Amino acid sequence: MGRGVVFLALAFLAGCTSREPQKPPPQEVKRLFRTMGCTNCHDIRNTIGGPSFEAIAARYPAHPDTIRALVKRVKKGVRGRWKDVPLEECPDKTGEGFKDYEIRWMIEWILSRQWQPSGQKSSPGQTHKEEKP
Q1: How many structural domains is the chain composed of?
Q2: What is the CATH number of the domain that holds 112?
Q3: What H or E segment, with its residue span, contains residue 12?
């Protein structure tokens, strides 16, 4: 019986250590964009090498299935979703590898439009004063 209890305790602890960390506040999520190199191709309002965050938020609903699909697209790349702008596999600027939960946090940040004052939705052509991610 003693070994069974030890085994259960170890299994429990192993499960606890593999859990994803608590989601950081929006300012920390915002820093991930720079750390991971996303801002080399994406901007809040302007198309640089990839679509703007505003265009992404306008196209995709903040639904869990959509978010899961977008995480896969960011990791593997995709062609044909934004006309002639291919999404190559995103380069790993950190050297540590992208974690799915970090990518998901960033996608949730984009789709929730947290760059806008008071979560206000904008229409095309409307401008807001905002800082870069």
Answers
A1: 1
A2: 1.10.760.10
A3: helix 2-17
